[in-house]
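Question: what's this shape?

___
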Amino acid sequence: MRKILAICLSLILMLSLCVGCGSSGSDSASDDSNGVLTVGMDAEPTTLDPGELTFENGLYISMFLYDVLWYQPYGSNDLEYRLATGYEWTDELELTITLRDGCTFSNGEPIDAEAVLASLARAAESISGSSRVQNIDFSSSYAADDTTVVLVLSYYDACTIENLGNGGAAIVDVNCTDYTAPVCSGPYIVGSFATGEGLVMVKNENYWDAANIVYDEIDVEYLSDETTRLLEFENGTYDLVFLTDSGNIEEVSALDGVTTAKLNTQSITGINLNVTQSDVLADQNVRLAIAYAIDKESIVNLYCGSAYNVADSILPSTNWAYQPMNYTYDPELAAEYLAAAGYDESNRFSFTARIIDVGANMEIATAIQAYLAEIGIDMAIDSGDTMSVISDMIAGNVVFGLQTYTGVSDPAGVLNARVSTAFADMSKFYSETTGKGDAAIQQLLDDAEFIQMDEAERGSYYISLQAACAEFCSFIPLYEGFSFYAVQNGVADVTASCTSEGFLTGYHLG
């Protein structure tokens, strides 16, 4: 089974846009009659290639420029079909997809079965798409005719249908070579794009559903400083703005004429303890000492604010398989666990936390450092940019880090960076390479991810898994993620436009 780098990458990178803890009425900015919507966002993309877009650099724009087969609207258990009109399981490991007839790319080329299959195969080699299509055997999959794609799977994955509706699996023209002015398949095409100058998207008049796309143009500007971004929104520069800071969220929610949308997403941010490569953290007593030494409720409330919910499981509380596994702040119990591991004030141990320096990560890490020092653990902090820290994680050089796991509605999507076939060992409960960790918990996870069972049966598996994870204690949950948008004078229906993951799309935005 293919071991994919991006199954780790695409989940580790979710530390900013939709789930990252932030740091931190006027007239509509545009005349509705001209069909222009202005948007203020934080994360500026460096490319418009959906295979290279991540949450931190703008994956949210993928479903404006590139269409998907289908997607799950926010708050719905049903799919909305886009380039596809339906699918059927024609065998246990065979998925047959029927495409909408007559769809074309923005250059007029047909979006037929061959084009869709080529696009998905390209996604398999990309950062944001590989985890979405990793179980597809492209050497055996084929186009039965112009509107029929037959995907042969190498193994069952409960998230297959949801994954194919994600922006990472959006359909592209594989012959496109210029992703500053790309060939598009979605409701919008690129009017202009340059780093530091924003993105202008213009309605794709050749889009199959163009009659239902409200805005003729969407102008996206990027301001990394959220306070400035909020001020620009209040001054009428933006119609729609994305926010993460609790104080800013409270401020904008009190404004007259402003509609807000807080969308709970299937994401958990927490402390990952590398049990597969660290001798010290391989000791369960050490891990439990760390868990009980940290007052995470105080940390989240102080540095993330009232808008954020404290997490108490490896799954978010909105997930159907959720079961609490919380660690209550108890420094005395933490000291007992540390003593059981053979450490005390006269025999302290130390390690280095490797932290991605975004949002409130550094403030959170510094607070954790202080709590651990109180029970005799010395934690140094080494910060870096996203890609350098991720590279260290993949190489096995990180023993303690803040990570976010995000998925779709199925719990398998939140946890798939932990399965045995994932590329990096850091997130796993057991490594065959090092022999460290707990093979029984790893097998429990793999079974819950890949065995075909009904929801009730799988639910009991996940309840057992969460209890086992709480005892094993290699992941200490901190906070749950969400997306928050503010809109001037109701010019856009954000909730109707978003996916189940809280991403804006070009559909129904008006």
About this structure: The radius of gyration is 23 Å. Residues 159 and 235 are 43 Å apart (CA to CA).
